């Protein structure tokens, strides 16, 4: 059996597959910003992106709780659909309180087409009755994609999650 000879065009095609993707900051893009709300007690409600098009955007740190309350900024490619996995959760500052905490959280995937130059913010509300997280256009405050709602432990069968109070949180 004889191996095919590598010609210059074949070699260039093989090498082209090894190139790194272009820097998104040099292309038309939108910005996605996380947000948080520091409650009166030692609780911080955090709303953030986990992945963009399947790629993890959270930094790998040895103590993930130290990232709570630090709003991440991610770039999104403009003009094409993106899948953003987002979450909203309540985290307590004290380690004993964290151990015994009421795990109020929600997460899911939002799909939308970002517009070049736009800023989008991950917002939400975390409560025992229901927790919700969504992405909104920072200029118009319109929800893009869909709102993700998870019933909480205190939710009744007749509770309407759409009537939850909306909490404006920090961030952009």
Provide structural commentary.
With 172 residues, the chain is mainly β. It has one domain (23-154). The chain is built from two helices and ten strands. The strands form two sheets. Strands 5-1-8-9-10 form a five-stranded mixed beta sheet, with no helix packed on it. Strands 2, 3, 4, 6 and 7 form a five-stranded antiparallel beta sheet that branches. The N and C termini lie far apart (63 Å). Residues 1-6 and 157-172 have low confidence and may be disordered.
Strand content: 35-45%
Number of helices: 2
* Arithmetic mean of pLDDT: 77
Task: Note poorly predicted spans.
Answer: 1-6, 157-172
Into which percent range does the helicity of residues fall?
Answer: under 10%
Overall spatial form: globular
**Largest pleated sheet:** 5 strands, mixed
Q: Could you tell me the number of beta strands?
A: 10
Output the structural class. Answer: mainly beta
Strand sequence of the main sheet, in spatial order? 5-1-8-9-10
- End-to-end Cα distance, whole Å, is 63 Å
The run of helices and strands is HEEEEEEHEEEE
Q: Characterize the quaternary organization of these chains.
A: single chain
Give the C-alpha Rg: 21 Å
Question: How many domains in all?
Answer: 1
Write the layout of secondary structure elements.
Elements: H1 8-16, E1 29-33, E2 35-38, E3 43-52, E4 55-56, E5 73-77, E6 82-92, H2 95-99, E7 105-112, E8 119-126, E9 130-137, E10 143-151
Parallel strand pairs: 1-8
Antiparallel strand pairs: 1-5, 2-3, 3-4, 3-6, 6-7, 8-9, 9-10
């Amino acid at each position: 059996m004889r191996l095919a000879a590598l010609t210059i065009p074949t070699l260039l095609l093989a090498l082209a597959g090894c190139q790194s993707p272009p820097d998104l900051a040099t292309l038309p893009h939108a910005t996605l910003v996380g947000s948080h709300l520091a409650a009166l007690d030692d609780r911080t409600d955090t709303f953030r992106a986990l992945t963009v098009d399947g790629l993890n955007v959270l930094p790998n740190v040895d103590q993930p709780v130290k990232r709570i309350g630090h709003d991440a900024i991610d770039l999104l490619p403009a003009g094409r659909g993106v899948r953003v996995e987002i979450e909203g959760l309540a985290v307590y500052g004290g380690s004993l309180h964290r151990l015994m905490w009421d795990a109020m959280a929600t997460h899911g995937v939002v799909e939308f087409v970002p517009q070049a130059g736009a800023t989008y913010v991950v917002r939400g509300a975390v409560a025992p009755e229901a927790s919700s997280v969504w992405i909104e256009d920072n200029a118009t405050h319109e929800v893009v994609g869909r709102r993700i709602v998870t019933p909480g432990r205190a939710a009744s069968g007749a509770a309407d999650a759409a009537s939850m109070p909306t909490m404006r949180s920090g961030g952009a």
